[in-house]
Amino acid sequence: MTAVDPGATAGAVQSDGSNGRARWPLYGVAAGLLGGIATLFADPRTGVTETDRVDASILGDISRGAAHLGLVAGFITVALLLVLAAAWRRQVEPRVPGSTAAHVVSGALTASAAGLTYGYGWKGALAIYLPAGMNGKSFGDEGLFVYFMLNDFGGYIGWLGVVVAAGAIAWMSLRERTVSRWIGVLSLLPVLAVTVFAGATGLPGFQGVVGPVWLLIAFTGLAAGRSTIVR
User: Fold this and answer.
1) Whose CA, among 41, 64, 74, 81, lies 20 to 30 Å from 32?
2) Cβ atoms of 85 and 113 closer than 8 Å
């Protein structure tokens, strides 16, 4: 990841905002907001009674409505991540052609979109196979319990790519100086949090907690701020 002269290509890409501020980071803001709803709020496990050993007896406590909402909000999130990745390639990468980190961001966002397609798809599958769903008689309790377990971390694991993107943006900020310093410091937090939790406990999904929050705050900062990559 090499430092670049941001002024060399600053004129290569025009701002997409009429007042001189870039609008494309708003895709990231929307993805963070809807991703938080799809992952944290629309969790079909929320109403499940906690027990020492979870089995199929908890199926009656699962919220089909939450699973359905998770699918809809989640698929919109996936679409927004893909649009954000495309906007980043168009608006940012030509400005910093020598930055490997800048290219990592778009690839990492695309990777998250791919993983989250499955995670949110399992929410939808649970919604249609629960008793009140469209195909409510297709599976017995054992089959439904499999989909319940897939939802345990399904909507969380796929956010890893977003955390990788956070690490790349931190590099662009703190090493290459093309992103505001406070965004770089902020971007280190999800990377450190996920690394510590995964390394210390084996927890595979903490990125689903911190990823949407980082996306929302960091891209709000890019939209409202004066980082080199959005001037």
Assistant:
1) 64
2) yes
